């Protein structure tokens, strides 16, 4: 974003939503609310690290196959024009970690669903999927297995 004030407002809004959401463990319980923020390639890399830092969580990138070092787990997903795949480092999420998955846009839900499959494969618990924009007419949230939050929904 060119406007740093608008970017700060966006980040603050998302952090406030996550920190106050009923989908996560209340702070009063003494439990850490979010352990890991997973950001999808590539715009999730702009949002995820900043949000993770503010939440006191770690950041884990999900990238196109072959882009991450070390041992990785892979999920294949369908796109409008064929299939693609995502990788996550095999030791990035510990059993029982509470995870938020973030990206800028949800359309058909395929890439977010693949990221969720990687989180589950490593033993993580998905608390919520978070997006800036949702193309609601494509019904992508129906592909996902945890609550979905989007700041802007486009219905046409």
Characterization of this structure:
By secondary structure, the protein is α/β, with parallel strands linked by helices. Helices cover 26% and strands 35% of the residues. It is built from 3 helices and 7 strands, in the order αβαββββαββ. It has a 7-stranded mixed β-sheet, with helices on both faces. Strand 1, helix 2 and strand 2 form a beta-alpha-beta unit. The longest helix is centred in the N-terminal third of the chain and has 17 residues, at 4-20. It starts with a helix and ends with a strand. The model has no long low-confidence stretch (mean pLDDT 92).
Please sum up the structure shown.
By secondary structure, the protein is an alpha/beta fold.
Describe this protein with a few key phrases.
seven-stranded mixed sheet; 156 residues; alpha/beta; 3 helices
Give the topology.
Layout: H1 4-20, E1 36-40, H2 44-55, E2 58-64, E3 72-79, E4 82-89, E5 98-106, H3 110-121, E6 125-135, E7 148-154
Q: What best-fitting shape do the alpha-carbon axes yield?
A: globular
Instruction: Spell out the helices and strands N to C.
Output: HEHEEEEHEE
Q: On the 0-100 scale, what is the average pLDDT?
A: 92
| Percent of residues in β-strands | 35-45%
Look at the helices and sheets and give the structural class. Answer: alpha/beta
- Specify the helix fraction band: 25-40%
- Ends distance: 25 Å
Structure annotation, total helices:
3
Largest sheet: 7 strands, mixed
